[in-house]
Amino acid sequence: MTNLSVNLNKVALLRNTRNLGIPSVVNAAQICIDAGASGITVHPRPDERHIKPSDVYELAEMLSVEFNIEGNPFQPPFMEIVRQVNPTQCTLVPDAPNTFTSDCGWDLVRDREKLIPIINELKSLGIRVSLFMDTDPNQIQIAKKIGSDRIELYTEPYATAFRHGNVESVFQQYAAAARQAQAIGLGVNAGHDLNLQNLAKFCSIPNILEVSIGHALIADALDMGLSTAVKEYLKVLPESKI
Ligand SMILES: CC(=O)[C@@H](O)[C@H](O)COP(=O)(O)O
Ligand SMILES: NCC(=O)COP(=O)(O)O
């Protein structure tokens, strides 16, 4: 089964607009877990626009499923949080501090040397390492060489092409990237702008291990409730072949 990791950034975003503590990130996580989610994802950004360090620590205390923390390891306090929490997985993302949202994968030709000690430290802590990547085959090759366990394919270009009705050629790029990654021993995750409409096609790519979904799922939850939304996404996900 391709695992669903629910990203709770947008629950925290709404919570932060009043000093009332609602909606609760921890309560939302429990609802997602009770509905069948295999993981929870958070992206504590330096400006704390949504997920705050305190959210990460509170989630770490209660989670009974995989915990995926995303972020740029060169922007404090990301690595400090990770060292304290020791999550299941870290997804390293090359975001600038003030980016509107995550908008590209790593340039490993440029950043490989500075990422190697980070990857080595995370793996020494027993944390699975995933690198947020575009579909470039040369970049994916380097991800393996520098010791990453997985890649997360950045799926916004796929989602945009899907929305515009001309997805096939873009989809084939993702399928080829996944095949290449799997052939060299990288696990393949995926995320960004996945939703109930575009997920089934994307997950027709064999052996996508995990999709992390937040924005669209939380938007769907406003219509149908969080538990139902999680169950609807789970209905779409295929049985993994491995
Ligand atoms: C890395 C990625 O694509 C998303 O997980 C990211 O967390 C989205 O960040 P925002 O929720 O801040 O847009
Ligand atoms: N890594 C992708 C993620 O966690 C959620 O992205 P989105 O569904 O909020 O676009």
TrEMBL record:
Q: Under which pathway is this protein filed?
A: Cofactor biosynthesis; pyridoxine 5'-phosphate biosynthesis; pyridoxine 5'-phosphate from D-erythrose 4-phosphate: step 5/5
Q: Where does 1-deoxy-D-xylulose 5-phosphate bind?
A: 45, 50, 101
Give GO terms: molecular function aspect only: pyridoxine 5'-phosphate synthase activity
Binding-site list for 3-amino-2-oxopropyl phosphate: 7, 18, 193, 214-215
Keywords of this entry: Cytoplasm, Pyridoxine biosynthesis, Transferase
Q: Which is an annotated Pfam family here?
A: PdxJ
Which enzyme class?
transferase
The protein's annotated catalytic reaction(s) are: 3-amino-2-oxopropyl phosphate + 1-deoxy-D-xylulose 5-phosphate = pyridoxine 5'-phosphate + phosphate + 2 H2O + H(+)
**Active-site residues, record numbering mapped to chain:** 43, 70, 192
Task: Write down the EC number.
Answer: 2.6.99.2
- Keyword Transferase annotated: yes
Keyword Lipid metabolism assigned to the entry: answer is no
Cellular component GO terms, alphabetical: cytosol
Q: List localization entries.
A: Cytoplasm
Give the site residues for Transition state stabilizer.
152
Q: Name one GO biological process term.
A: pyridoxine biosynthetic process
Chief localisation class: cytoplasm
PANTHER family, alphabetically? PYRIDOXINE 5'-PHOSPHATE SYNTHASE (PTHR30456:SF0)
Q: What family does the entry list?
A: Belongs to the PNP synthase family.
Primary role: Catalyzes the complicated ring closure reaction between the two acyclic compounds 1-deoxy-D-xylulose-5-phosphate (DXP) and 3-amino-2-oxopropyl phosphate (1-amino-acetone-3-phosphate or AAP) to form pyridoxine 5'-phosphate (PNP) and inorganic phosphate.
Q: How does it assemble?
A: Homooctamer; tetramer of dimers.
Q: What is this protein called?
A: Pyridoxine 5'-phosphate synthase
Q: Which organism is it from?
A: Chroococcidiopsis thermalis (strain PCC 7203)
